[in-house]
Amino acid sequence: MQLSSEEAARALAAIRASREVMRSAVRAHRGHYHLWLWGVIWIAMALLAEFRGLAGIRLFPWLCAAGIAGSGILGFIQSSQVRAPVDRRFLAVLAVVVLFASLGPLVLHASPDDKALFAYIGLVAMLCYMIAGIWFDLYLLWLGLVIAVLILVGLFVFSAFFWWWIAIFGGGTMILTGCYIRYFWR
Question: Which of 50-54, 79-83, 179-183 has the lowest mean pLDDT?
């Protein structure tokens, strides 16, 4: 079947229109809150590690649990306002990525320091953002890619200031992206 140039133009216009509707719905129905939530959690984790050392790092699982619970609550609230089915294949891909990523340090018999372990977990999280960007909307791909590069720069170039770097450029980037989506994304 061959499309005429007019049919192709109409199809592209329909795609653009649906993307605009989706972006508007995400912007209006708290899509940015997830980025703000996790940005604040990243900042809190980095500052706890900087100021409290190992005692602060031991609080990371609790902060992550609070973030997961908060994301669940936001998702529940969003689901009543934005009608979209849960993509089980996407969730399965994320589960597989996290499962295999958790095996990495075990297979390598690695005993990384706190900074390297945080960077590794952060890179896995950014891989999940990039997959979500490929699956749903490109801004998540770019956000994941930018933060992954910033994590690596912080780990290898600014290691002495790693936790400050993560607070500013990891958590800060998430918060600023949430602000962009909320106030400027059209």
Answer: 79-83
Nearest-angstrom CA–CA distance, 131 and 128: 5
Same domain, 97 and 14: no
Q: Are residues 24 and 48 in the same domain?
A: no
The residue whose two tokens read 């499962």 is 99
Q: Distance of CA 179 to CAs 49, 120, 161, Å?
A: 26, 26, 26
Tokens at 139, concatenated: 């801004």
Nearest to 166 by CA among 32, 39, 29, 2: 39
- Domain range for 100 is 31-184
Number of domains in the chain: 2
pTM over 0.85: no
Please state, in angstroms and rounded to a whole number, the distance separating the CA atoms of residues 100 and 53: 28
